[in-house]
Sequence to fold (249 residues):
Amino acid sequence: MTKVLVALPTYDDTSSTRQHIYLWGAQTDRIQIVPSTRGISALCWCFNWLYTRALNDKTYDYFLLLHADIIPINPPHWVGKMISEADRVGADILSIVSPLKSSEGLTSTALVSDQHPQGRRVTMFECVKQLPETFTDRELIEAFGWQNETHVQIRVNTGCMLLDLRRKRELFEQMHFRTHDNIIKRDGKFVATFIPEDWDFSDQAYKLGLKVAASRVVQLLHHGATDYRNGGAWGTTEHDTEERCSESR
Fold:
């Protein structure tokens, strides 16, 4: 039987009832889902505490990180769907595309390169109208027209992210969650910079040669002031720019 540790980090030991319902419904006879929760206000410490459970217990085949504000709603057996899709495309890491909590329709999935170090995020319009349901850096390069770029890599979200620990556990054991905060001087002014834990984790995967894919095979809600869905083309922004990306991350 396939064994999956589903990590449920929280800020204050509370979580969504809807999330629990959909997680319970995802269980099947072939997949053993083991929820693990921890309430720590320090985000990366919380993620890492949960991650070490899967690293230390080699009976786990997969580690699935699910943020407290992410609710997978379809298909019912969504954990099995993620596993099947990761196998189909040969992904070591499969991340479900999640829109940001804004009306723009931007997502936290992006592409970066030497020529575009700030990156360009994928929009919900691009996800639905230009990209296959599951995509890697290869499809994004084609969609963005970055064929002549160098050191191109995809950056994905950790909100609903599956790690396949079966084949390359020794590489995953070299990874952890962290953020990078800094103050730099740009055009004579001090500027605060930030690399979030999801994009840093993607960078680590790239350096280790792991295959990363983003997908919409699971429909989810990113819960905030309202529910932001990944199931269709919507938003005020059809295409992101590097300038907008650098200002908001």
Residues 2-248 form a domain with the Spore Coat Polysaccharide Biosynthesis Protein SpsA; Chain A fold (CATH 3.90.550.40). The mean pLDDT is 94. The longest helix spans residues 43-56.
